[in-house]
Write a structure and sequence with these properties.
binds S-adenosylmethionine, S-adenosyl-L-methionine, Rossmann fold, globular, methyltransferase, transferase, alpha/beta, protein methyltransferase activity, seven-stranded mixed β-sheet
Length: 223
């Protein structure tokens, strides 16, 4: 069993402005742990977490994969980037946080070269203005405000993710039932040639959480 990263250096003040790991975070950790052997066999060179928050998820995958991998972590919230950096130090893994939206300034350099992509997005349905306001404010509301169907922020990244994935790359996404998981899967296959499986799901209070894993649909590449 891989231990949950040590977050004892983070305080209540940090969690006033940065997402505190919760059931969604832990579901993603459980999904990565279940894929531990496959992830190691992939021998990744680059991982990228979008919205790293406290840094808990990236520190966890860094424990699985070891020091030879580059762990890029982005977040729109500058305080989250500071927390991610300190979580790396606390857990003796080298995390590289970057304070940008999605992977925007890196996308050309990273084209088809990221082996593992992780995103636990702001998935809560809100009015669209709330999501766009939260993106602009770059604070704690950006951790959850997702706009229509909770998909306004996630949808922007879903348009870009295939371009970042290496040939053998995989993408792990957290979603809730209100996001229309079958609809996400159908669209990603039809529009981007990414085949997906629900690899874990769990009820947590009112939320029905899912972790989706996307890979290239090899039947399309070969045909
Ligand atoms: C639900 S929290 C997840 C935090 C952490 N990954 C975890 O699982 O505990 C979503 C994170 O995404 C960040 N975020 C929201 N919109 C973003 C964007 N456009 N680009 C990068 N990060 C974003 C938020 O600031 C927040 O840290």
């Amino acid at each position: 069993m891989i231990p949950t990263p040590d977050l004892s250096h983070l305080t209540a003040d940090d969690y006033d402005c940065v997402y505190e790991p919760a059931e969604d975070t832990f579901l993603l950790l459980d999904a990565l742990e279940a894929d531990e052997q496959e992830l190691k066999q992939l021998r990744p060179r680059i991982t990228l977490e979008i919205g790293s928050g406290s840094g808990c998820v990236s520190a966890f995958i860094a424990k699985i994969l070891g020091p030879s991998v580059l762990y890029l972590c982005t977040d729109i919230n500058p305080h989250a980037c500071r927390c991610t950096l300190s979580t790396g130090v606390q857990n003796k893994v080298a995390l590289d946080p970057i304070n940008v939206t999605f992977a925007a300034p890196l996308s050309l350099r990273l084209k088809r070269s990221v082996d593992v992509i992780l995103f636990n997005p702001p998935y809560v349905p809100t009015i669209p203005d709330e999501a766009s306001g939260a993106q602009d404010a770059r604070g704690i509301a950006g951790a959850w405000a997702g706009g229509v169907d909770g998909m306004n922020v996630t949808d922007v990244f879903l348009e870009r993710v295939e371009d970042l994935m290496s040939d053998r790359g995989r993408f792990y996404l957290v979603a809730i039932a209100e996001n229309d998981v079958p609809g996400i899967q159908e669209r990603m296959l039809r529009l981007h040639g990414l085949q997906s499986d629900i690899i874990l799901s769990r009820r947590a209070g009112r939320e029905h959480l899912f972790v989706l894993r996307f890979v290239r649909d090899l039947s399309r590449v070969c045909s």
